């Protein structure tokens, strides 16, 4: 494992279901002195919406927030700066920290396609090391390719499979065509007498209703099927323990694998996914992973009747948070992850 003892890290990240806290905790456990800041001034639904759709209207708030960070870190010398996503991070901040810490290695990671956030492309020039979870972006923008990870608590060390309450579970945020695809899967599962459970999550009732008015996919959403209560990691793990397989529905324009992919497989549960690019990863095994067409849903009963095949320990480690940290702060892993990619 990489040695970070005595290293000082300035870490900014978008808030994403407390994974940023897990990363901060692990960096500290590895001996680093970490100063963490949320990259957004606020995580209210209003703030997220303004930043997402037109952050110019939030310019003064963003400027004030980042100037406060600069005041708090003034005089500190860092070995590394890590930014994850950086949707709200202004260029003037990147300029100033680079000038004040000229020897600091600047590291960037993004877990969304750049076509969805094209304004982030201009920030890439500030960084010494640039990573993306999206293979196509790695090629197009000359970035390092590093998929996401799972947290240790998801790992099932003995691959223990308990009697299942469900055959199929879906847990995910309500966005794009997830509801449309999810309900198609539910209908097919019902026709096969499979036991299913679907948990669609939305950040806030008002924000969801407004988005529902303009998003053609969400217009079909039965709001009674939406929960506004976020599940924590332990609650999600408890659901995994009760099911044979977990459904993952990627954004239709996204090839990078969701973090759910890694958590499900690490937990020893089978995965049903709409992301066909998963066939280009070292852990792909048709016994464990069923790829479905979001336009023509088919479920194979045999998939539910066979056992999960244990993932090789070396591959499982490469999927872990520790390996993710090693990649960002140590040596890039493109040679490993690209070995399995079929480029024909």
How many distinct helices?
Answer: 13
The overall average pLDDT, rounded, is: 89
How many strand segments? 12
From the N-terminal CA to the C-terminal CA, the straight-line distance is 35 Å
Low-confidence stretches: none
| Rounded Rg | 21 Å
Shape: globular
Protein name: Lipopolysaccharide biosynthesis protein
Short key terms for the protein model shown above:
6-stranded parallel beta sheet, globular, alpha/beta, 13 helices, 344 residues, Rossmann fold, 12 strands, 2 domains, single chain
Give a verbal description of the structure:
- The protein is an alpha/beta fold and 344 residues long.
- The chain has 2 domains: 8-149 and 320-340, Rossmann fold (3-Layer(aba) Sandwich), CATH 3.40.50; 153-313, Rossmann fold (3-Layer(aba) Sandwich).
- 34% of the residues lie in helices and 17% in strands.
- It is built from 13 helices and 12 strands.
- The strands form 2 sheets. The chain has a 6-stranded parallel sheet with strand order 2-1-3-4-5-6. Strands 9-8-7-10-11-12 form a 6-stranded parallel sheet, sandwiched between helices.
- The longest helix is centred in the first third of the chain and has 15 residues, at 59-73.
- It is globular and about 65 Å long.
- It starts with 7 loop residues before the first strand and ends in a 7-residue tail after the last helix.
- The mean pLDDT is 89.
């Amino acid at each position: 494992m990489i040695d970070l003892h005595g290293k000082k890290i300035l870490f900014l990240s978008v808030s994403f279901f407390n994974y940023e806290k897990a990363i901060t905790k692990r960096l500290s456990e590895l001996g680093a002195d970490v100063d963490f800041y949320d990259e957004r001034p606020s995580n209210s639904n209003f703030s997220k919406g303004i930043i997402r759709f037109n952050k110019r209207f939030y310019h003064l708030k963003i400027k004030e927030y980042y100037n406060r960070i600069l005041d708090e870190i003034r005089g500190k010398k860092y070995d590394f700066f890590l930014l994850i996503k950086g949707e709200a991070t202004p260029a003037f901040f990147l300029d100033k920290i680079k000038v004040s810490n000229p020897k600091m290695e600047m590291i960037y990671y993004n877990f969304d396609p750049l076509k969805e956030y094209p304004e982030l492309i201009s920030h890439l020039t500030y960084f010494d090391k640039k990573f993306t979870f999206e293979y196509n972006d790695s090629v197009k923008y000359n970035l390092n390719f590093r998929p996401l990870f799972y947290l240790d608590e998801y790992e099932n060390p003995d691959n223990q499979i308990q009697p299942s309450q469900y055959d199929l579970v879906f847990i995910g945020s309500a966005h794009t065509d997830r509801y449309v695809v999810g309900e198609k899967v539910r209908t097919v599962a019902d026709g096969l007498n499979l036991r299913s459970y679907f948990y669609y999550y939305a950040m806030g009732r008002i924000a969801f209703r407004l988005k529902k008015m303009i998003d053609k996919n969400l217009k079909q959403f039965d709001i009674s099927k939406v929960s506004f209560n976020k599940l924590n990691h332990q609650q999600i793990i408890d659901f995994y323990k009760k099911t044979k397989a977990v459904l993952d529905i990627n954004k239709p324009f996204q090839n990078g694998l969701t973090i759910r992919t890694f958590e499900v497989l690490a937990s020893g549960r089978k995965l049903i996914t709409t992301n066909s690019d998963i066939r280009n990863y070292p852990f792909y095994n048709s016994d464990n992973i069923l790829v479905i067409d979001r336009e023509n849903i088919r479920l194979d009963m045999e998939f539910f009747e066979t056992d999960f095949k244990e993932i090789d320990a070396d591959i499982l480690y490469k999927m872990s948070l520790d390996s993710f940290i090693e990649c960002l702060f140590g040596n890039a892993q493109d040679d490993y992850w690209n070995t399995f990619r079929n480029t024909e």
